[in-house]
Amino acid sequence: MVTRSGVRRGESLTVNADDFIEICDLCYRYAAGVDGRDWTLLRSIFTDRVTFDYSSLTDRPAVELAADDWVAGIKPMFTALSATQHSMSNPRVTVDGDAPDTAVVTMYLQAEHILDPDDPSAWFTVGGYYSNRVVRIEGRWLLCGVTLTIRWRRGRPDVLTIAAERGRSAGSAA
């Protein structure tokens, strides 16, 4: 069956240039929010409920959460890290021919997590890609699903655990 745009049901379409730019910027704002510790910016890019799948990093299953809860949950860990840098590249965006207000954006990722900048043994880097679901609501693209696929790791994965513990301790001491 052919739909109104001549696309067969279930086929994917490449998104138009304006949407492509907006969707890529949405992903870049994700990195800017985390790396800049700008929690308001980070929260602004999500729908109210979001599915997060970091199972390739944490071995925990995907979970659907309120975006406010997810941002509040990661804040202590990222605040306790000295620095992070999430670099994303090679975006590919496709929309569903049956649902033109939904799309999937896939981007390569390299993410540095630094507990102590003077001690390279206290760094953890991952490489892989994000495959994120986005939806257009009232003319604005928002993230509704985040999936991270790790392809390689370098350094100490426990850097994230140590940072999370330090962040929670600092929060409870405040």
Features:
Nuclear Transport Factor 2, Chain: A; 174 residues; disordered N terminus; globular; alpha+beta; 7 strands; 7-stranded mixed beta sheet; 5 helices; single chain
What is the tally of helical segments? Answer: 5
Tell me the strand order in the biggest sheet: 1-4-5-6-7-2-3
Low-confidence stretches: 1-9
The sequence of SSEs as H and E is: EHHEHEHEEEEH
Mean pLDDT: 91
How many structural units, i.e. domains? Answer: 1
Q: What structural category arises from helix and sheet content? A: alpha+beta
Number of strands: 7
Shape call: globular
* CATH-assigned fold name: Nuclear Transport Factor 2, Chain: A
Question: Which CATH class applies here?
Answer: Alpha Beta
Q: Outline the biggest β-sheet.
A: 7 strands, mixed
* Estimated helix fraction: 25-40%
Through-space gap between termini: 61 Å
> How much of the polypeptide forms β-strand, as a percent range?
35-45%
Topology:
Layout: E1 12-14, H1 17-35, H2 39-44, E2 46-53, H3 55-58, E3 63-66, H4 67-80, E4 83-96, E5 99-114, E6 123-137, E7 140-155, H5 158-173
Parallel strand pairs: 2-7
Antiparallel strand pairs: 1-4, 2-3, 4-5, 5-6, 6-7
Helix pairs in contact: 4-5
